[in-house]
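Practice problem. Given the sequence and the SMILES for fe (ii) ion, write out the predicted structure.
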Amino acid sequence: MGMPISKAGDMSLGHAFSPSPITPSISKVMHQGPVHVATDVIAVHVLGNSAHGGTILQVSTTVMAENKGVARLMDTGDCGAMISGSGAQILVGG
Ligand SMILES: [Fe+2]
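Answer key:
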């Protein structure tokens, strides 16, 4: 069962709700813009009284783009932030 990919413009939803942008790091694999992959930078967002940035950590372990795992809806960053994914035309497995 695949999940929609996360791609340029899809935000980190943070923790509960503190959205912040994600900077795509690759350019060769596109779906209406670059897809998000492991280690892409999540901009500063808030958890309680902690403001911090992060990077995408949990991604597909089987589907790669430029040798990095592809990020999907509900994948998470290294701080636990949840990633959004609107690329529902492309489903990527675990
Ligand atoms: Fe976070």
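Check your answer against the key. The chain has one domain: 3-92.
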